[in-house]
Structures are given as structure tokens and as C-alpha cells.
Amino acid sequence: DSGVTQTPKHLITATGQRVTLRCSPRSGDLSVYWYQQSLDQGLQFLIQYYNGEERAKGNILERFSAQQFPDLHSELNLSSLELGDSALYFCASSVARNTEAFFGQGTRLTVV
Amino acid sequence: DAKTTQPTSMDCAEGRAANLPCNHSTISGNEYVYWYRQIHSQGPQYIIHGLKNNETNEMASLIITEDRKSSTLILPHATLRDTAVYYCIVGPSGSARQLTFGSGTQLTVLP
Questions:
Q1: What DSSP string runs through A19-88?
Q2: What does the DSSP 8-state code read for residue B43?
């Protein structure tokens, strides 16, 4: 158990819909990162927040957005969902810039 | 532009040492070598990282060549639970938070 909690574990939704994925980082970790893992793309970095502020962006689509709240939990919002958005979405957290990241168990999103 | 090269797959007998190689010939002076693993669709798990000295922790050892162009992750006594995809990643200190995962090596530990 990494200490990073993601909910829900599984999510099935229809194309065009919007969903919210939630992540609670390890206690004391200020940084949260979101990753997407699909069968054909591998694991890709989406976005990072540090203490409520966006710090880095990767290959995140404009239909996707994220935020980190004062209690440090984070949400990833996915809208206008397409079949190709079906993937595992991982959240990770770390305590500081130069320390390793700990990953949650992921949310498996299926868009039908 | 791939920064690391790893074999696609490897097998190892249970109880033996598993040696996973990684080539990173374009690594720059301030870049670290990180290793993570992912056990079938679970979240990636941090294993170890290093700059130029060899490193050891409770999970594994990391051997980095003197020219830093390659490294080897060593699992000293592989178990069936070590079957996973192992990712070698290079980047500046702190880049563990923005990991660029390649294809990794599928390690299968055989009974």
C-alpha cells in the first residue's frame, strides 16, 4: 500500500459525458501528479500540482483539467469523453521535488 | 526521442539474481537514473535511483557504469512476486515527478 488513494477504482461511462477522478496523496506530500496509461500509449504524464498550484503540464488534452484543493487532495476532470479516453488513470504524490513518487492503484475508465 | 533502451523481456529462475540492463548513452551530467516497476495494471512502484555511485536498498541494487552510459538493476533473490514490467528512466533530480516511461522490460520469474 503506497498510501495514495484513488477513487473510484472502476468507472464506466458513455461518450460525451464528464467524469471526475479523485486522488488523496500520502500524508504530508505536497505534490500530486496525474498519469494516463492506455494500451497503445504506455504511461504518460499529464499534469502536476504542488501545494495547490499547477507546476507542470505534460500531454494533457484541453478537455481534461485538474485541481488541487487546500486539503491537498486532487481531482482530474475529464469532459466530452471519447472512446479513446478509455485508460487507467494514475495519481502519484511526493513530499518534495527531488524525492521519488508514490503511485495509487489507479482508476480504470471505460468509455462506451 | 527515447532516452533509455531496455530489452523487451527477460526470464529469471526463482531464487536467482535478476540483472536488468539499461542503456542511457545520452545521459547528461545532472541526470539521475530511476527504476520503477509495474505489476500487472497496478500503480508503478519506485525501486531505486542513483547519480553515479552504486546504490543499494532493501529491494535492489543499482550498478551504474563509470561513464554513466548504462546501468544494471539487480534483484538479488528474485521471487514470483517480482514478475513485472521494469522501467529505467533518466532525468534531472526531481524529474521523478514528471516521469517519461518507455516500454520497459517484462521480467518473468519462473518457478
A1: EEEEEEPPTT--EEEEEEEETTTEEEEEEEEETTEEEEE-S--TTEEEEE-TTS-EEEEE-S--GGG-EE
A2: P
| Alpha-carbon distances of B79 from A91, B8, B41, B104, B107, rounded to whole Å | 27, 20, 19, 19, 11
**Nearest residue of B to residue A31, measured between CA atoms:** B97
Please state, in angstroms and rounded to a whole number, the distance separating the CA atoms of residues A67 and A76.
Answer: 7
| Nearest residue in chain B measured CA to CA from A87 | B41
B58 vs A86: CA distance, rounded Å = 36
Q: What is the pLDDT of residues B54-104, one digit of tens each?
A: 999 999 999 999 999 999 999 999 999 999 999 998 887 655 566 778 889
Q: How far is CA A70 from CA A24, A48, B56, in A?
A: 12, 15, 37
CB contact under 8 A, A103 and B34: no
Q: What is the pLDDT of residues A21-61, one digit of tens each?
A: 999 999 989 999 999 998 777 788 899 999 999 988 988 99
User: Residues of B71-110 as b/e, b for ≥16 C-beta within 10 angstroms?
Assistant: bebbbeebeeebbbbbbbbbbeeebbbbbbbbebbbbebe
Read off the pLDDT of residues B18-28 as tens digits, 9 standing for 90 and up: 999 999 999 98
- β-partners of residue B62 are B55, B73
Which among B38, B53, B55 has a CA at the least distance from the CA of B102? B38
Do A2 and B45 lie within an 8 Å CB cutoff? Answer: yes
